[in-house]
Amino acid sequence: MTFINYASREINCKIVYYGPGLCGKTTNLQYIFDSTAPQSKGKLISLATETDRTLFFDFMPLELGTVRGFKTRFHLYTVPGQVFYDASRKLILKGVDGVVFVADSQEERMDANIESLYNLEENLQAQGYDLMAIPYVLQLNKRDLPNVIPAADLAAELQRKGEPVVEAVASKGVGVFDTLKAVAKQVLTELRKS
Amino acid sequence: MHEQQFRQIEAVVAKLRNDASARVVFLVDKDGQQIAVNGDVGNIDTTSLASLAAGNVAATGGMAELIGEKEFPTLSHEGERESIHICVIGRVLLVVIFDDRSSLGLVKLRVKQVTPELHTIFEEVARTTKQATSDESFFAEITDEDIDSLFN
Ligand SMILES: Nc1nc2c(ncn2[C@@H]2O[C@H](COP(=O)(O)OP(=O)(O)OP(=O)(O)O)[C@@H](O)[C@H]2O)c(=O)[nH]1
Ligand SMILES: [Mg+2]
Question: How far is CA A91 from the centre of its chain?
Fold first, then answer.
């Protein structure tokens, strides 16, 4: 739910990075955090296991600037991708304005991508959202690895509704901001429609 | 939310902080967005705190459901020096940070006393927001250029 505060002239939107375990959700946030100016970001909070797997969520607030005098702030969250953390994933989707699905391009992760995408659809539904209606971007991550499925084939399998598809190497920052921009744009466009 | 409602909320939060002898009082949306804050924030990262408070309430709410409860309306965490008390008021969380100048009993009492007032204000906010979204044409005027300019 976009939170518009007319008194302090702020727009706050919530973006959630979703996808299977180890696909690179946390890496996306880490890169955004590392490459934005201190004055436009807050802390990066990571609730992670001792082995750096996301346990509950990662969170970082990011200020992009002003639109018509309103400060726009994006709250970026990642979910834990491991299958058994489903209850936490459901909670994090509450109040979401836009979703980035981070797919792992490696052949052996195809089933995990599909399972996670179904899981996203179900969990959105449980919260009263429709994947077909919500601002949404598909990121094809880990394009640098040798055993990847061709981007076109991957997109054919995972694209749901003509959403933007961004090829990425999150660990090097490739495609990370293009992804964020694509989803943020849709969220703000949605605001205009409402 | 409009200017006057915001001032009203700020006044309630300020009064609560004073009456409860608390260090800081926050109002946070259930999704983790900060609404108002009063007190000695010091170097507390309030945005992170708001997000974690919401995560905390969401997680315990999830546990409540699993054991057949609707939700746990209050949460308290007592530390050696600093403590935190969270109270769920509809869609909003009231977060009180206090130290040994106060006590959990006092904080709970004061929070209980302002709860009805906050309920009333937020019902009013919800009502006027509904109206506002139907006749607020401001956002309809956002252009593609406005959006693009954010990313330069
Ligand atoms: N080669 C390569 N490695 C990547 C890329 N993106 C992420 N990684 C690596 O993949 C591993 C997992 O990345 P994370 O960002 O922690 O994955 P996650 O999706 O947050 O995983 P969970 O928290 O378990 O859901 C890390 O070792 C990253 O460095 C990429 O584009 N290329
Ligand atoms: Mg992670």
Answer: 15
Task: Check B59 against A56: CB less than 8 A apart.
Answer: yes
ipTM topping 0.85: no
The tokens describing A8, both together, are 């302090």
pLDDT tens digits, A47-102:
999 889 999 999 999 998 888 888 899 999 999 999 989 999 999 999 999 999 99
Chain A residue set in contact with B, beta carbons under 8 Å: 1, 3-8, 12, 14, 42-43, 45, 47, 56-57, 59, 61, 64-65, 67-68, 72, 75, 87-88, 90-92, 94-95, 177, 181, 184-185, 188-189, 191-192, 194
Residue ranges of domains in chain B, CATH in brackets: 3-151 (3.30.450.30)
What whole-number distance in Å separates Cα of residue B96 and Cα of residue B84?
A: 6
> What residues pair up with A141 in beta bridges, in sequence order?
A104
Our CA angle for A58, A171, A135, nearest 5°, is 55
Longest dimension (CA), chain B: 54
Q: What is the DSSP string of B24-78?
A: EEEEEETTS-EEEEEE--TT--HHHHHHHHHHHHHHHHHHHHHTT-S--SEEEEE
Q: And the tokens for A190? A: 């949605």
pLDDT tens digits for range A26-55: 999 999 999 999 888 888 999 999 889 999
- Residue A38 φ/ψ, nearest 5 degrees: -55, -35
Q: Which helix (H) or strand (E) holds A63?
A: strand A54-67
- Provide the sign of the torsion angle of the four alpha carbons B114, B118, B119, B124, taken in this order: positive
C-alpha B89 chain-centroid distance: 9
Rounded to two decimals, what is the model's pTM?
A: 0.90
